Amino acid sequence: MEQKSSSVALVLLFCLSLSSWHTTEAKHTWQEAFKVLGISWNPNGTLNRQIQIPMVDPTPYEDTTPAPTALSQDIYLSPKSKAYIRLYIPLNPPKNKKLPLIIYLHGGDFVLFSASTVIFHNFCINITTQFPAVVASVEYRLAPENRLPAAYDDALNGIFWARDQALGIGGRDPWMEYADFSKVFLLGSSAGANIVYHAALRAMDFDIRPLQIKGLLLNQAYFGGLKNTQSEIRLKDDPYVALYVNHVLWSLALPRNLNRDHEFCNPISGGTYLGRVNRLPKVYIKSDFGDPLFDRSVQLAQFLYNNGVTIYYRFNAGGFHGIESQNTTAAQELYDDMKYFVNNPFGTSHEGISDQPLYNDMKDIVNVEKTYASS
To answer: Of the listed 116, 190, 251, 287, which one is catalytic?
Structure first.
């Protein structure tokens, strides 16, 4: 009886923590946001996630039906937890060339989905085949059961796993023989892009050699702040990332004593990372004008540029949050951008210093490449 009472109290505490934004978003309630998200409270304070996007098993063998376009397997990181890496390699990886290693963090607003969710599984397959690359997709813990920085810690553990693979600690998985540990990129979509940013900065506190993180790829990064941006106001009733839903999601993801101007949510607000930002490698930032989070990506790009980080960006007209999961043309444009970003040094000198401007529009770069290829 005592355990049941404490569980009810826990749910009430969660509900009260969500009420702080209610006065500024008076037209909506957190119950409405939960309905949109397809979530509800369980009696023990965990979430019941009702959105039925299929989850798929890995395909470690070629002789399966339907025939896979890339191979995948799940590697569990600890017998005591559910943490795992979903690892991908091309069907016919090159024999005489190592492939870049992409460490991927999926989207889902910190609250939803999994590395095995079909849209992210297929995304990783496409990256694996098109780049080509070895892709390690990290399964991370979700909020509110595990609030931030739990997801950042799990991403770091994914980086540590890759480091240990490079060192051969505990043996090396045969598929990782195809990976170039000197050419590692961190890629994330939506909340995954937020995780990538924080994991890259946190990794600076550790010796991850021989891994060399050469770049970050942030696709429609999920950031926020107490002061709403113009794009958030303009698109406050967006069907994908409505402002009131956004505020509820941050109430679930952030530690209870923090607000949306903490660096977990608002990376340009200051915080503990300021002395490290200028040490980041090159960064690709992609966003769409039809995404309420558009201004957050523009602000981040300018912030990183002001800190001396080399930025490659694509800011599209139109679009919406998650467009690449529904529009094959937009998806292919994203794949092409990322492939070029990963496989080209962008004029970096032998000393590792860029001899191009710090702020670069991918549209201009791709157009020049197409003109050169057709001439």
So the answer is: 190
